[in-house]
Structure to design on (317 residues):
């Protein structure tokens, strides 16, 4: 009698399926690997396509239903874009693997290849991210911001149809879908601090499911784990999960971890920055994230975030 296959829970978008199939391929490459099947799960983010992400009430908009299926035993593995996953996981769920990080930057796509500085005043730029809007406003306060929802191919189609002069997306998703020819400019992290964990695929399982964890733990990438440990600790210490205009990026060498982070007002007029370094270990990474967060808070990040939430009536976590 053959063993039951591992069931991977995933959204059905092109990018989510790419990520789940990538995990499937990594599992299949292991000796005596189990069979794997994909289970498509529709999330709140898939159903409420007209709701701006910053009004979604937390960071579980694209993950909640998948993690619920995991806890209920409907699936054994949950594959997420780690930037969508709440910093506090559901009890009984563990982040079993963080895959090697892809390009963490944001990218600008325009219809004619124009770069950010060359866009005409008043050009319409589509993004659903408060973070991207804030840093865009700081770089180009003369541009018009419009809401942009949908999967990556849909967003690019809307750009080509003339709904926008430009859109901003995560580089990782564009690269994974083979759409790099559409990119007009890779935005420097110094100007556009990436979302926490952007470019990392997170693989979750039930904490007590040793049979599944033994297949997932070998997929964990040391550098990605160190980086996201620092970034997620920073985000958790600052705001607990809701969308805020905050970006952070940790980089890892053999023995040293560096973290830089920025919080920006939505009108772009005020930006707070902090950075630090620590030995490349998980406890030091978490401590580094908390230390950089504390520095941002000491400089007024909490007041800035509260002000922006009040202005937009962003729900509390």
């Amino acid at each position: 009698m053959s063993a039951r296959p591992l069931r991977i829970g995933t959204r059905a978008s092109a990018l989510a399926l790419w990520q789940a199939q990538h995990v499937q391929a990594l599992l299949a490459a292991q000796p005596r690997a189990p069979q794997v099947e994909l289970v498509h799960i529709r999330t709140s983010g898939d159903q409420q396509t007209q709701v701006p992400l910053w009004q979604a009430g937390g960071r579980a908009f694209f993950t909640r239903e998948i993690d619920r299926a995991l806890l209920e035993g409907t699936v054994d593995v949950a594959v997420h874009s780690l930037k969508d996953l709440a910093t506090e996981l559901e009890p009984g769920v563990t982040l079993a693997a963080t895959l090697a990080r892809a390009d963490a930057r944001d990218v600008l796509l325009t219809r004619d290849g124009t770069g950010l500085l060359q866009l005409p005043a008043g050009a319409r730029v589509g993004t659903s991210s408060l973070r991207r809007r804030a840093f865009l406003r700081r770089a180009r306060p003369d541009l018009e911001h419009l809401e942009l929802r949908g999967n990556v191919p849909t967003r690019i189609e809307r750009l080509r149809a003339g709904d926008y002069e430009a859109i901003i997306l995560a580089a990782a998703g564009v690269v994974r879908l083979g759409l790099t020819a559409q990119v007009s400019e890779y935005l420097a992290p110094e100007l556009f601090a990436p979302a926490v964990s952007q470019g990392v695929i997170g693989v979750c399982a039930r904490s007590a499911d040793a049979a599944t964890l033994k297949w997932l733990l070998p997929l964990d990438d040391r550098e990605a784990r160190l980086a996201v440990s620092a970034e997620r600790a920073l985000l958790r210490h600052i705001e607990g999960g809701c969308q805020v205009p905050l970006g952070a990026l940790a980089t890892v060498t053999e023995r040293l971890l560096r973290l830089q982070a920025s919080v920006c007002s939505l009108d772009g007029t005020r930006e707070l920055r902090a950075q630090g370094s620590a030995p490349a270990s998980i406890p030091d990474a978490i401590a580094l994230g908390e230390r950089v967060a504390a520095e941002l808070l000491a400089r007024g990040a909490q007041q800035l975030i509260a002000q922006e939430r009040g202005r937009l009536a962003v729900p509390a976590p």
